[in-house]
Specification:
Its main location: cytoplasm. This protein has 107 residues and is mainly alpha-helical. The chain has 2 domains: 9-54; 72-105. Helix content is 50%, strand content 4%. It has 4 helices and 2 strands, in the order ααββαα. The protein has helices at 10-45, 50-54, 90-97, 102-105, and strands at 72-73, 81-82. It has a two-stranded antiparallel sheet with strand order 1-2. A hairpin with a 7-residue loop joins strand 1 (72-73) and strand 2. The protein is elongated, with a radius of gyration of 31 Å.
Length: 107
């Protein structure tokens, strides 16, 4: 089934390309599935389980995004603190504009 691509217009070519890519993906999935079955059969024939060979599949937990200890405190309102990460709070910027230094605001 040879297709003369020189006789196809732009839309027909795009349609052919998309169909070919879909078919290529289908073939790849089929091949991967067959290979997976072969690997499982080989492992089973040797008397092992998939987990024996490749581990349990449980990955280590990622560290959570816990809170960071505050690094700066607003002298006018001690309840307001900032860790030094992210956007500067307005009180911090205002204090710097008023002539204070970062070390003056440090906890």
């Amino acid at each position: 089934m040879a297709i003369d691509i020189k006789s196809l217009n732009h839309n027909q070519l795009n349609d052919l390309i998309s169909k070919a890519q879909l078919r290529q993906n289908e073939l790849r999935k089929e091949k991967v599935g067959k290979l997976r079955e072969k690997v499982h059969a080989l492992i089973k024939a040797e008397g092992y389980t998939f987990e024996d060979i490749f581990g349990s599949g449980v990955r280590a937990k990622r560290r959570g995004t816990g809170s960071v200890a505050p690094k700066y405190r607003n002298p006018a309102d001690p309840e307001q603190t900032w860790s030094g990460r992210g956007k500067r709070p307005r009180w911090f910027s205002d204090a710097l504009k008023a002539g204070k230094k970062e070390k003056d605001l440090a906890i």
